[in-house]
Amino acid sequence: MRGMFTAGVMDVLLKNNIEFDGGIGTSAGAAFGCNYKSRQIGRVIRYNLKVCRDWRFASWRSWIQTGDLYGAEFCYHTVPEIIDPFDCATYATNPMTFYAVCTDVVTGQPVYKECPEINSSILEWIRASASMPLVSRIVEIDGYKLLDGGMSDSIPLRAFEDMGYSRNLVILTRPAGYIKKANPLMWLIKYIYRRYPNLVEIMRNRHKIYNEQTAYVAQREREGAAFVLRPPQPLPVGPVEHRAERIQKAYDMGVQTAEASLSEIKRFIGSVRE
Q1: Per-residue model confidence (pLDDT) at position 245
Q2: What is the pTM of this model?
């Protein structure tokens, strides 16, 4: 739910007609980020406020009944098809490329899936990107077994640069100075995923990988190759959030952060376009 900060940033950029050649998102960054390519201003905050108290959206009841804390059928079919329709046509015609990052549970390595259009298959890839370990079923698609992309590549800046995107705007959902610590549930992860030793190993080292990535982002920021937006303080939401006022506050923090940096963002984007 920290992705609500990202949603606030995105809406400010969209309202100011700021376009990108490509985008990449991990976990909520994929589930929410695809709305940039469909140019749907306000959609993320709108549907989250509407369904945040619905047990089918995210709840322990959903986990017990379906195997997913965030209900797969509700989140990836009912919401985008009925409650707040996703603009598949605009998404498909927008020349911006978009990638979702997932984790291959067999190899423990990230998988970068280009999403040129939104259909039932691509929605499964986006669901996999946001399927948190321990509280989600493994998503099997196209010969892969997948879970949350944040397990293997939480901040895919280096991967995106390797694809040829040399100057990037990066949206982080942790404030400056945040240091991730080792997962206290490694004992449970080791047991639940004992058939996938490579996944267990990547999770054992995830905090080290994440901290290295934030250091790399800061380095690229100093070098002028990345413009970074971070919340000024920890966001007031948890992994599951039913309080609409907390969701709205996280979103508003994204809006305020982007608006405060808008002139700098425009200069950065302008220098890229020149």
Answers
A1: 98
A2: 0.95
